[in-house]
Amino acid sequence: MSQQVQIKPQAEFPLLKEYSQYFDITPRTIFAWNNAIYTNYALPNDLLIHERTHLEQQKREGLEHWVKNYLKDPKYRLRQEIEAYKHQLSTVRDRELRNKIRLESIDNLCSSLYGNIITREKAQLIFKVK
Hints:
This protein is mostly helical. Helix content is 55%, strand content 7%. The protein contains six helices and three strands.
C-alpha cells in the first residue's frame, strides 16, 4: 500500500458500536478501516498482512460498500475473510507456523468472531486440512 497505515487503539474504532451489533467483540478483536488498524496489541507481520488485505479490499470496492456488505452479508464477509487469510498464509514461510495459523483461521471462520459464517468441514476444505 502506498499510504502509511496507522495503528490505533481498538477503543478509537469509529464503528465499534455498529460492529458489536453483529459480532462478539473482545479486547483482542482487530478492526481494519479507512487506512487504519485498530488493535489493543502489537501484531505479528502475518496478521498485519491480513488486516492490510482488508484495507486494500476497502479501497478496491469502496469503503462504504465494503462495510455495509461485510456487516450484513455473511457470504460477502466470508469471501473477504478467505482472501485475507489466504494472503496471510501465503506470506508465512515457516511450515509449522503456517499450519498453526491455518488451523486458527479455520477456528476463527467457524466462530462467533465472524458470525459463524461457515461450517468447520467447509473451512477445512477451503484451507485443505483433513
